[in-house]
Amino acid sequence: MSLNTNNSSVEHPLPLEGEDERKINIAHYTVLLLIVSVIGLISNWVATGTDPLSALPGMAILYVVSIAGLCLARFVPFYLPSIAWISLLAILITIPGIPGADWVVAKVEALNFLALATPALAYGGLALTKGEFDIARKSGWKIVIVAICVMLGTYLGSAIVAEIALRISG
Question: pTM here?
Fold first, then answer.
């Protein structure tokens, strides 16, 4: 007697690894991004003390740009990852001299991007899958040494670059 645990009829709303990003469910993403935006406003409020109502226009701009970028990634006939579309749109609407760019920058300045990144990074840390744990288990203790060396090298490299920049600037 065997159990069939392969449930291939389940449709995932989020793209899986190797899946075509152009087939994402835009409606599902609008809801997810709305939830993330609310969490971001709360995070910004806690981190900076900025009133959520005064930061709302900036968050709304980020929300609209993100949805527009997802729509472009979905419907434009050539492939470009959604993060590229979102970045391009954000760059375009903030180029000095573009009508409305000063207003967009002024509204988005109410947001602290480090405060917005904290919930996303926390979720990324919590979203480790069984496969990632299996890889870590198979790698053993050697991966811990490699990770420590990478983190130490990154820290020292950053400190050296910062020291050089500070000495040059006086």
Answer: 0.68
